[in-house]
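Whether sequence alone determines local backbone shape is best considered at the level of individual chains. We regard such an encoding as a compact summary of how the chain folds. The sequence in question and its structure tokens are set out directly beneath this paragraph.
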Amino acid sequence: MGLEGLTAAVDELSAEDPSGCCDAGSIEALHRQVARLEAITAQRTAAFDAAGNWVPDGAYNAAAWLVTRCRLPRPKAKRVVRRGRELLHLPAFSRAWVDGDITADQVDVAVQLRSDSTEEKLARDEGLLAEQAGTLRYQDFVKAAAYWKQFADPDGVEDDEERRRARRDVYLDCSFGGMWLGKMTLDPISGSIVAEELQRIERAMFDGDWADARTTLGRDPTIAELCRTPSQRRADAMVAMASRSKIAEGRRPGPLFSILVGYETLNGRICELADGTVLAPGALLPWLDSAYLERVVFAPERRVSVSTTARLFTGGTRRAIELRDRECTHPFCDVPGSLCQADHIIPYADGGLTVEENGRMLCGFHNRLRNLRPVPAD
């Protein structure tokens, strides 16, 4: 068949009406075949690179040849060449990619795991990691891979964390026209602190803009009818942060670290931010003097709970569920737990108890979707 047959198959598929294969199964199958084709392309590109077939055209290297002949952005061209080279050292991931079980993004995560200090352990555990890559959502696999690296190379991840923090940088300067221009690069903990406060103030400004527009129009406004764009509100929120800092009194608020007791036994290690970013334990040390600490005990006889017959999950019970689930538990959702509702797995109306084991986090949409009554039969 070869490339001619592939071209003919693509031509035939492109001639079909797109609405004819837009069901869930077809879309999943298409993405699977795209992944397989990317894997084959990476393998062939590695062979092209190794054979030096880019030399006759006078290219500096294979990536430079791809930039010109295949019109790829230079970063993407370099990634394609690197993937192809690394696949030689990752046979399990190579097979899974060719089979369409994983994508190029998961291969890139695996490539980042390979180093001189982890090569032997990666060869031992690669099959398990490839299996996880084929079953977990991408972001969940990123976290699983990060935890694997913590165990495989504990000293290396601490060094990586130090290098990541060392890259922090803020640039802010006045332009010729009087406008201030800048950029910001922060480590995960610092960035989380800044982003959370910026989002909180921006959200309050959004609510105010919405209320003003509704009063003026006499109806719910559209986003375009608000007086400020999201970017403008974020800029105003940053000014508000600086102004409040100037007039603030007393002790500044510190980050909250939640210590989960009994969690690792059943669920595995957890050392990450609320947004899911995995940290090396050493990254927490500089913050311990100013942080608030809370302990959550995952043991029925030791924890503090609300009444098992209470209607709503509150207090320590809700907090424990939020920390356990960390996001909406619907398989097609990743809304953070702090924005979700604590829902009874066995409905309260059916005798479900208000206990941690019968609770789960659901975002407002999926909680409402679960509780929709079926349409009455005619």
Summary: The mean pLDDT is 88. The radius of gyration is 26 Å. Residues 255 and 303 are 23 Å apart (CA to CA). Strands lie at 169-174, 180-185, 256-261, 292-297, 341-344, 359-362.
